[in-house]
Design brief:
seven-stranded parallel sheet, binds 1-O-pyrophosphono-5-O-phosphono-alpha-D-ribofuranose, Rossmann fold, three-stranded mixed sheet, 209 residues, binds uracil
């Protein structure tokens, strides 16, 4: 069984509040998304395995823990997930990066896949799947489907803001994955936008409309 963790940390809460402000411009928005991704990544990677390695310190020889070389992949959901990649790579710089392109139909809110390119040996990797927004959950469910279809079973989904509806949908569709949430918001509105949310994450990261 996977776990669901809503990360309760004042730094993350503060930075998410800044993201919500409609006066936060593209440049600051990007920086904040990256910083939040790094802080959340610290929590999401808490259970990475280590192994004892001998080192010689200036004082003595010692056996110390080092990351055991687990194969990692960061697979952002395009577009908005791209904004979180560098924050995660700051923690695990040798992780490979894949991409899943999905967009939500504006009327039906159904996700449509338009691109999927994953690192080789994906079935052996731990996949970190970042997307700032989990709204209806359709995009996240499809992204996990796409990764599982290619043989990967070890998946951690990370979002900055989730709606209760989307979190429930993702948990029910993929109870085996770990889910990390920066803040659980109130609800979806009639256009399936998160309330209070932050608007359209992709548009705010890339300055599009
Ligand atoms: C946004 C967001 C998620 C999705 C969430 O992407 O980044 O991928 O919506 O909504 P859902 O949970 O209801 O599926 P969007 O489809 O707007 O594409 P973009 O990132 O290219 O702007
Ligand atoms: N996608 C976004 O970018 N924002 C929302 O509130 C919902 C879906």
């Amino acid at each position: 069984m996977g776990t669901v963790k809503v990360i309760d940390h004042p730094l993350i809460k503060h930075k998410i509040s800044l993201l919500r402000d409609e006066n936060t411009g593209t440049r600051d928005f990007r920086v904040l998304v990256e910083e939040i991704a790094m802080l959340m990544g610290y929590e999401a990677l808490r259970d990475l395995p280590t192994e004892p390695v001998k080192v010689k310190t200036p004082i003595t020889e010692a056996e110390v823990p080092m990351l055991s070389g687990k194969k990692l992949a960061v697979v952002p959901i395009l577009r908005a997930g791209l904004g979180m990649v560098n924050g995660i790579l700051a923690l695990v710089p040798s992780a490979k990066v894949g991409h899943i392109g999905l967009y939500r139909d504006e009327v039906t809110h159904e996700p449509h896949e338009y691109f999927c390119k994953l690192p080789e040996n994906i079935e052996e990797r731990l996949v970190i799947l970042p997307d700032p927004m989990l709204a209806t959950g359709g995009s996240a469910v499809e992204a996990v489907n796409a990764i599982k279809q290619r043989g990967c079973t070890n998946i951690k989904f990370m979002c900055i803001i989730a709606a209760p509806e989307g979190l429930e949908t993702l948990k029910n569709a993929h109870p085996d994955i770990d889910i990390y949430v920066g803040n659980l918001d109130e609800r979806l509105n009639e256009n399936a936008y998160i309330v209070p949310g932050l608007g359209d994450a992709g548009d705010r990261i890339f300055g599009t409309k």
